[in-house]
């Protein structure tokens, strides 16, 4: 059996696992280059896709443009800011988690992931500050 291990993929995973900011592939590439200057952008994109396919990472899609990646693979949801594109984790209460799992299983699905849209706390503060100065 062919191993999917590579020093590059492990570096990419370590960089991704070192943050909870849900980075873009571009951000991961920039951070990887600090330790491995010759790593290509194509390698980062390919290996991120491989990490997602193998279940070691998840891809968070939204209306913010570029995909974001997350090394937290336990079942959880995401909140995406429509202003700055920030992505935050959201862990549902036990009751909601059980209801979502039941709904998914009842329909033959193995998991769930909700994405909430809105404006993050930082952008709300900036908006409120701008309104206060008017």
How would you describe the overall organization of this protein?
With 134 residues, the protein is α+β, with helices and mostly antiparallel strands. The protein folds into 2 domains: 1-73, Arc Repressor Mutant, subunit A (Orthogonal Bundle), CATH 1.10.10.10; 74-134, Dna Ligase, domain 1, CATH 3.30.1490.190. It has 5 helices and 5 strands, in the order H-H-H-E-E-E-E-H-E-H. Strand 1 and strand 2 form a beta hairpin. The longest helix is centred in the middle third of the chain and has 13 residues, at 41-53. It starts with 6 loop residues before the first helix and ends with a helix.
Highlighted features:
134 residues, alpha+beta, Arc Repressor Mutant, subunit A, Dna Ligase, domain 1, 2 domains, 3-stranded mixed beta sheet, two-stranded antiparallel ribbon, 5 strands, flat
């Amino acid at each position: 059996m062919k191993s999917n291990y590579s020093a590059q993929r492990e570096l990419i995973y370590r960089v991704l696992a070192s943050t909870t900011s849900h980075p873009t592939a571009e951000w991961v590439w920039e951070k990887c280059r600090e330790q491995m200057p010759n790593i290509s952008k194509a390698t980062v994109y390919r290996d991120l896709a491989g990490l997602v396919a193998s279940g070691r990472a998840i891809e968070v899609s939204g209306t913010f443009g570029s995909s974001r990646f997350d090394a937290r693979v336990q079942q959880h949801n995401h909140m995406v800011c429509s202003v700055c594109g920030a992505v935050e984790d959201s862990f549902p209460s036990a009751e909601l988690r059980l209801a979502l799992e039941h709904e998914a299983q009842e329909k033959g699905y193995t998991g769930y992931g909700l994405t909430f849209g809105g404006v993050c706390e930082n952008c709300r503060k900036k908006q409120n500050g701008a309104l206060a100065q008017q």
